[in-house]
Design brief:
Chain lengths: 324, 324
């Protein structure tokens, strides 16, 4: 019998390699500020060679969300693929030490564990160049029997759509979620990722996902509009619950006819990496603990504020103490 | 022709694995607070299993000192042994990205690159459990031709004395320093390290080293006394320059008849890891740039204050801007 989970997340298992650089550095390496660019190993190594001294901490969008749920005291699990190398050891150690049940294959040959090279500019914004490595090889066999069935909500990151092999695994997960009568949640991840997968995302949101997370840019990209209100109406009509982050303007959530706006929690912004991931953690924790939509949004705002107040995409504080 | 260096440091090449834990954790793993304990791989893995999520940053006492000298704008080099693994890649990337000329062997088999598991308690103090790995295999062949001869000061960490193989390399370095008419500097590293090597350290300080760094506990351990003034007189009689750190009381330096006391620079203490290493960097930078003993001590105090204001043992700021 599999232990029940509040939230199971599925995504790329990555270790973040974080350095502070000026905006000129982004031009030098040729990446768009605030975006996430997938790079091959050669490009990743070229960027790393140019980067200053770095801090390595475990990351990965959906993995960060699982850690956030656990930091609120929730039961969280994560599925993602790593390799049996030192970076993979870091990743698995950190997520398990955070109290998350970590599943997914560990490859013994082939590509190394994935890394995300994160450049934090003086304005605290983060620009990411991700080498997926082993994460790129997520497959149906990585989904343990019974785990999806045991999770009240299963949450998938949009980044996975850049990996053809992962799609079969996600379809399998979706079928199991539906068969168990559980909820299926999704984050659009990145506006360029939306751009690469628009038709598929729209179809899945309409037919598969119950809960959708996005930020303003991702949502506007999805509907190819500059009109946020129109985009928000568009997404709200297609799923049960939607939660959209708007940076310093806070967030807006909708469930059926109910709409709530949540102000951003005050904080000193040091590094915005993980803000969306931790916002999702707070909302998912709230939704799985009988909270109102507004309370769930407030949990999201508090978790996001915590993670942007320091370097790294995972909370360094027990989030329960911040709520109290 | 080898590029001239202000400071060449020799020590253990280590990546720090840092986690915040309560004092009870230290009892659980059975280590003495504020100490550095050498552990074998099995013990290292047991401690890592028990540790919470961690941050990985490059460390190693003498390596941190070299990075500090570079952060002041000095020409710095480092000699230490790593392996051709991911942790070794982190180490070499970070020290070179900091502007330090990195030398020393890279082993292709045998032990992994060394790691120091650092537990930061709520009072900001650090307790270290170090698995030396490849660092333990430093040997004469790791010293590039001409590098010691090109450095105004060569600085050795006391931790190296725990490795029998390294002693031959240090003797060779000492001979080359003397033949070139350069200066030889030393840090006592840790009071337990002093305890393990007292006679040898006293002999080397008397006959080999020109400049000696210590903290209060290390100095008192060296002379097996509780009387700091007596210990300070003892060390001062045995070498040209001595610099002793006294935590929040600041530091005291002596050169011949000259004695100066330097107050600690004000800062919020987050993590004391690297305080002594960066203090040494400031003093060595001053001494190699024609500064007075007092100015050199002030550079040490400023560098130490910077590094204890954040997690990690290397500066995140250009130290020149702090001096200005």
């Amino acid at each position: 019998m599999v232990q029940p989970l509040d939230v199971l997340t599925v995504g790329n298992a990555l270790v973040d390699v974080i350095a502070r650089e000026n905006d000129e550095f982004l031009e030098l390496v040729g990446v768009v500020k605030n975006s996430m660019t997938m790079v091959d190993e050669e490009t990743a190594l070229r960027i790393y060679d140019l980067m200053g001294p770095a801090t390595e901490v475990s990351g990965g969008s959906a993995a960060n969300t699982a850690v956030g749920v656990a930091a609120f005291g929730g039961n969280a699990g994560f599925i993602g693929r790593t390799r049996d190398d030192q970076v993979g050891d870091f990743f698995r150690h950190d997520i398990e030490a955070a109290g998350v049940r970590c599943a997914g294959g560990i490859t013994t040959e082939g590509l190394a564990t994935g890394r995300s090279y994160i450049i934090v500019t003086p304005d605290a914004h983060r620009t990411m160049c991700t080498y997926l490595g082993a994460a790129n090889q997520l497959e149906v066999a990585d989904i343990p029997t019974g785990l999806v069935e045991a999770a009240a909500i299963t949450y998938i990151e949009g980044y996975l759509w850049d990996q053809p092999a992962a799609k079969d695994a996600i379809r399998e997960i979706g079928d199991r979620v539906a068969a168990a009568g559980n909820q299926f949640a999704f984050t659009l991840s990145d506006s360029f990722c939306v751009d690469r997968n628009r038709e598929e995302f729209l179809d899945l949101i309409e037919h598969r996902f119950d809960i959708v997370f996005a930020n303003e840019a991702e949502l506007c990209s999805l509907f190819q509009t500059d009109d946020f209100d129109a985009a928000f109406e568009g997404i709200r009509a297609r799923c049960d619950v939607v939660a959209v982050t708007r940076s310093e303007k806070g967030s807006i959530l909708a469930r059926g006819e109910e709409i709530v706006e949540i102000p951003a929690a005050p904080t000193d912004v040091v590094d915005t990496t993980g803000a969306g991931d931790l916002y999702a953690a707070g909302v998912l924790f709230g939704l799985t603990h009988g909270m109102s939509l507004a309370e769930s949004g407030q949990h999201g705002a508090i978790a996001a504020a915590e993670v942007i107040s320091h370097v790294g995409a995972r909370p360094v504080t027990d989030l329960r103490t911040l709520i109290a």
